[in-house]
Structure formats: C-alpha cells, structure tokens
Amino acid sequence: MYILLRDVEPLDAQRIASYLLAEGVIAAPVHDMTAMGYNARPTSRVMLLDGRDKELAARLVAELEQLPRTPALEGGEDEPDLSQLDRAMVVRCDSCSAEMRANAGHAACPVCSAEVDIADLVVQQHGPEALEACYPREDSIVVKPGSGVPCLKCGYWLAGLGVVGVCPECSTTYDKKRTVEMFLRRLSQGRYMADPGTT
Questions:
Q1: On the CB side of 14, how many CA atoms lie within 13 Å of its CA?
Q2: pTM, rounded to two decimals
Q3: What is the pLDDT confidence band of residue 54, given thresholds at 50, 70 and 90?
Q4: What percent of the chain has pLDDT over 70?
C-alpha cells in the first residue's frame, strides 16, 4: 500500500478516492481517529493499493482539483447520501447548539437559521466513520478491466489485463475485484497489505 495524500479533510479524502476508483486507480480513504476526543479536527489519508499507481494518481488528483466543486447540499455524485444515516443520529448547530436530525439534510438550522453543512457536523461530532453508510458499499465497487493491481503471489503488475485471469509471470489465477475487496477490508481493520513489488 502507498500513502498518496496525508492530512486531508475526511470528505475531500472520500471525494478523491471515489474519483480515482472511477478512473481505474485502486484507492481508499483512511480516517485518522487518534486525535478524536481532544477536540482536534479529524484528518484522513488517501491510500493506493500499490505505489506503482502514484504518478497516475497524482495527475488525476491535479485534474480533479481543476474541476468545479459541487456544493455539498446539491447532492453531487461524490457527496454522502445523508438519508442513509441512522434516524436517531443528531448533530448540534455550531451557532446556537440546537439539535437537528442528521439524516434530514438541513441547509439551515431550524432554530437560528444559520447555514449548516450536515455532513461536516457529522464528521466533527461523530467522527468520519459515521458517514461510511452514506457511500457505496465495497461490494458495489466496479473494478475496471485495465485497473492496476499486483498479483498477490509474485507482485506482477496486472494493469491492462482483464478483471479475472492468469498472471503472465507466475501463472497464478487472479481476480482484481477480490484483491480490491481485500485491500478495502484490511484498511477498514487498520491493517496494511504488503506491497509485493517491494518484498
């Protein structure tokens, strides 16, 4: 695994990882929770399955930064689907501390009418992992045929090959979707897969 970006806002990390995945680069956000409880703002990292994608990923991130940002409350493709939050979850307004249901998607506080960003309040008050249900599940991830993943046995870079097949280097069968699912599962458990290319 390779750390592409550090100290990224959690929602930006999710946006970047989603964009990279859509472009065939296997990436995922990792939310750093060590500072939670000390009133420090949580940050995230963007991890790549393998460092061999770092140059392509850097170009794609630069490309993404040039695209116009979709306002969070207009429900863009990269924005969390707040309707998936637990109906009992509440957040407090930054201005007046009034409580509001997190899954209601308010644009303004119902008490003081101050503008609110519900997703940002959820991250601040409940941690970035609270938004996991608001993004597509890992079993819905579509891996592009040309996506680069390493052969889990020998480390051969399988970019440009089909989603399933036989490694041309060691003749081991591979399934890119299973490799990506393993990558995401291990990240969610705080474990890192070794990069076969460096062992």
A1: 24
A2: 0.57
A3: very high
A4: 78
